[in-house]
Design a protein that fits this description.
Chain A: This is Circularly permuted ATP-grasp type 2 domain-containing protein. Chain A: It comes from Aliidongia dinghuensis. Chain A: InterPro entries: ATP-dep_Glu-Cys_Ligase-2 (IPR051680), CP_ATPgrasp_2 (IPR025841), UCP005522 (IPR016450). The complex is a heterodimer of chains A (about 475) and B (about 325). Chain A is about 30% helix and about 25% strand. Chain A is built from 15 helices and 24 strands. In chain A, a hairpin with a 4-residue loop joins strand 3 and strand 4. The longest helix of chain A is centred in the N-terminal third of the chain and has 25 residues. The two termini of chain A are about 30 Å apart. By secondary structure, chain B is mainly α. Chain B is about 70% helix and about 0% strand. Chain B is built from 15 helices and no strands. In chain B, helix 1 runs antiparallel to helix 4. The longest helix of chain B has 29 residues. The radius of gyration of chain B is 20 Å and the shape is globular. The C terminus of chain B is likely disordered. The chains are: A alpha+beta (about 475), B mainly alpha (about 325).
Chain lengths: ~475, ~325
């Protein structure tokens, strides 16, 4: 359908065999109609304006080369991804359930370890995990809240079902893009958003600040909150700035903090001022050279002493990484059942735990159809994607698997859903995922929507920003 | 009362200084380009290099101080730490650190300003186009100041910003006077000649003080009047006297309204300099030597900065004779 102004946005769009976020949703009709009234040229023009604005605002991640800092914006696609109230309700309940189970798991692991004694999760999986922190054993946290900020990575398969791909229970990032993307859309596409009824996202900072107040050590009337960043060289520095601003708290670095009498203070122009809650965007390893990596210059010597003494709260708690491990992920449906007596509302991607004989046999028999992932800390390395692997690669993977089955899980290849995306030459379907953000203090609250990451290369399943992925605004309708 | 991180105080102080520095550098270059030709119409670009004590660094890159070389060195050479682009980059880096403190408008403007500086091409540096470029740079700096004035929350950070701005401005005004001193030095026969008058008027223009000066002295430009105006006038916003008064007031504000205990050292140093500027006449200063007086002011300003750093920015006190002292074992 070509009108005299040029091709409209969705006229030549074909999602092929994939589940399409825009065409399949029943709630999307008004947005589809409005997109049909926009020409691709107009969309491209507004998109260029939006990108220039992101650059001017410095909403960038920084790539440091030998000589200079290069600021890149996270590519931003202007066609939104839309979720109906029903879809969102399902995701929200599922995320809250998962966060509850993860917090119960962490509290149990760092106290009585019932789940290990009952044989639900193999003890060595937890106690031998690189992210397990023995120093946390017996430490009591306010509201037993370990994972105060959680990012759950969710994908949608060919049948449209939402599946959890990963739990990020350490320092999940990306929420700043959710809010900035929305601001950007409001400026660039008032006509697209007008009267649609989209749930707001800009109270995230308030909710976060409130949760930080809730988890403060008992008896503190006006807790001083600070955000601890590795500094301006960190690629997520923009987000640290964003969150500190949204919460109205100082953005500190390790060198700004000092421990005296097991209490945390920041150096100010008026002398030392006590800090009660730290939202730390620094991994456990770097937090305290006395307790963890002695060579770390980013942390604060003695911080763990203050933490264990109950004089400061950390968000997220130390040692939460044990819960977002790939191997533990495989047990999540059983963990939810164990603590909550419920089925998982958001199922895992079907996962075979190769340490279990049946699963190992199934994996070996179906290697060419499965993704085989090592569960260690390698983060993306050592993955074998069956359908794309050569015979030699499969044989090699098989060997490794037989050698150390406990180090592997396998999953079917998921045919990720697509969303219409503006690319050079028009609009094409690109694979997307979704990372909703949950904040937990006394209770859990989920930001309506989340970060939709989009793989900008045709056919690519990689939505990661460091690998050329971008993001989209995610609308949850009223 | 909210407290201010020491590191933030340091960054905001230097953010202000770097922008003020860039503006003044643009002024100096513009004046040199536009007004300060001698009788033969040539210009002494080397004096700008000397003014900034950059001879070594400059001559490592350029055999002679041509207009082209000096302008590139001071406008677009990112490797030269005293260039305009380096100053704005440093200001932007400080702003990046300070983003939780400063307004979004302040950050966006510096970000855009720096990105634009990176794109300056050869044509914009050509003799005929230079003034347009330098005018834009001056205005961008003033826009920054205006945005800051209009959007920056008036808590402690604001006062540290003002301290940085006025200390740098006082320093730069003395440098402007000094460049005249350098220009004048080899040709003392010209003192009082028409050429000389035009150069002093150029100096006033570079400090944006020509018309203010005219309102005060409608009957002629003399070196002592100009020097007196730039050093001692109580109402001219770039005079050293007025800058010092601002430094004094802002420091007192921090110590009284914000109850900061530190900084009495710095206060004393400011008072001392203030007293000198309040009691000396320009004739006394010229008799004793303008260059020596300027040197004294610059040393005092550096001393005040060090004292502020120790009192508020978390710096370690420097030993009085650190260089002469034996290295610690």
């Amino acid at each position: 359908m070509t009108n005299e102004r040029g091709d409209s946005v969705l006229s030549g769009y074909d999602p092929h065999e994939f589940y399409c976020e825009m065409l399949r949703g029943e709630a999307n009709q008004p947005i589809r109609d409005r997109l049909a009234n926009l020409t691709i040229e107009a969309l491209q023009r507004r998109s260029a304006d939006a990108e220039a604005e992101l650059y001017n605002l410095g909403i960038t991640f920084t790539v440091y080369s030998a000589k200079d800092a290069i600021d890149r914006i996270l590519p931003f696609d202007v066609i939104p991804r839309v979720l109906s109230p029903k879809e969102w309700d399902h995701i929200e309940r599922g995320v809250i359930q998962r966060v509850s189970a993860i917090n119960l798991l962490l509290d149990d692991i760092y106290h009585d370890q019932k789940i290990l004694k009952d044989g639900i999760v193999p003890a060595e999986l937890i106690l031998g995990n690189a992210n397990y922190r023995p120093i946390m054993q017996g430490v009591d946290l306010p509201y037993k809240s370990y994972v105060n900020i959680c990012g759950t990575d969710i994908v949608r398969g060919a049948d449209g079902q939402f599946l959890v791909l990963e739990d990020n229970a350490r320092t999940p990032s990306g929420v700043s893009y959710v809010i900035e993307n929305r601001h950007m859309m409001a400026r660039a596409f008032p006509d697209l958003m007008n009267g649609i009824g989209i749930r707001p996202v800009d109270n995230y900072g308030l909710m976060l600040q409130q949760a930080m107040q809730e988890i403060a050590p008992k008896g503190i009337i006006e807790p001083q909150v600070a955000l601890l960043s590795p500094g301006t060289y960190n690629s997520a520095y923009f987000e640290h700035v964003f969150l500190a601003r949204e919460m109205g708290v100082p953005l500190v670095e390790g060198r700004d903090l000092v421990i005296e009498n097991d209490k945390v203070y920041m150096r100010t122009t008026g002398g030392l001022a006590q800090v009660h809650v730290i939202y730390r965007r620094l991994n456990d390893d770097f937090l305290d050279p006395e307790a963890f990596l002695p060579e770390s210059m980013l942390g604060v010597p003695g911080l763990m002493r203050a933490y264990r003494a109950g004089n400061v709260s950390l968000a997220n708690a130390v040692g939460t990484g044990v819960a977002d491990d790939k191997a533990v992920y495989a047990y999540m449906p059983r963990i939810i059942k164990y603590y909550l007596g419920e089925e998982a509302i958001l199922p895992n991607v079907e996962t075979h735990i190769c340490r279990e004989p049946d699963a190992l046999k199934y994996t070996l028999d179906n290697m060419e159809n499965l993704v085989v992932k090592p569960v260690g800390e390698a983060g993306g390395y050592g993955i074998t994607i069956g359908p794309k692997a050569t015979k030699e690669e499969l044989a090699e993977a098989r060997e490794k698997l037989i050698e150390d089955p406990a180090n592997y899980i396998s999953q079917p290849v998921i045919s990720l859903s697509v969303s219409p995306t503006l690319v050079e030459g028009g609009v094409e379907g690109r694979h997307v995922d979704l990372r909703p953000f949950a904040i937990t203090g006394e209770k859990t609250w989920v930001l309506p929507g989340g970060l939709t990451r989009v793989a900008l290369r045709r056919g690519s399943l990689v939505v990661n920003s460091s690998q050329g992925g971008g993001s989209k605004d995610t609308w949850v309708l009223e | 009362m909210s407290s201010l991180l020491s590191r933030y105080a340091d960054c905001i102080f230097w953010l202000a200084r770097f922008v003020e520095r860039a503006e003044n550098l643009a002024r100096i270059l513009d004046v040199n380009e536009t007004f300060s030709r001698d009788a033969r119409g040539s210009q002494n670009w080397l004096s700008i290099v000397q003014l900034n004590a950059d001879e070594k660094r400059f001559f490592e890159k350029h055999p002679i101080a041509t207009a082209d070389a000096v302008i590139r060195f001071y406008v677009t050479d990112i490797e030269n730490p005293t260039s305009i682009i380096s100053a704005i980059r440093a200001a932007r880096e400080n702003a990046r650190t300070l983003r939780p403190l400063i307004s979004t408008e302040m950050w966006v403007h510096l970000n855009v300003f720096y990105n634009r500086l990176k794109q300056i091409d050869k044509a914009e540096l050509a003799p005929g186009a230079m003034t347009r470029l330098l005018t834009w740079i001056k205005e961008a700096c003033q826009t920054h100041t205006g945005i800051t004035e209009g959007t920056f929350f008036r808590d402690q950070g604001w006062y540290f910003y003002q301290l940085g701005r006025y200390i740098e401005r006082a320093d730069q005004t003395t440098r402007l006077l000094d460049i005249k001193y350098h220009l004048l030095l080899p040709k003392s026969a010209d003192v009082g000649s028409p050429v000389d008058a035009s150069q002093w008027s150029a100096l006033l223009r570079s400090a944006a003080g020509y018309h203010a000066f005219r309102r005060l002295h409608s009957n002629g430009i003399t070196p002592s009047r100009v020097a007196g105006f730039l050093l001692l006038n109580h109402r001219f916003p770039r005079s050293v006297y007025l800058c010092l008064r601002e430094v004094d007031q802002n420091l007192n504000e921090l110590r009284s309204r914000h109850s900061l205990r530190g900084g009495s050292d710095a206060c004393n140093a400011v008072d001392e300099l203030h007293a000198i500027l309040s009691t000396k006449t320009i004739d006394e200063i010229l008799d004793a030597g303008l260059h020596e007086f300027i040197d004294l002011i610059q040393c005092q300003l550096a001393d005040i900065t060090n004292r502020l750093a120790v009192a508020f920015f978390g710096a370690m006190p420097t030993m009085p004779d650190a260089e002469a002292a034996p290295a610690p074992q």
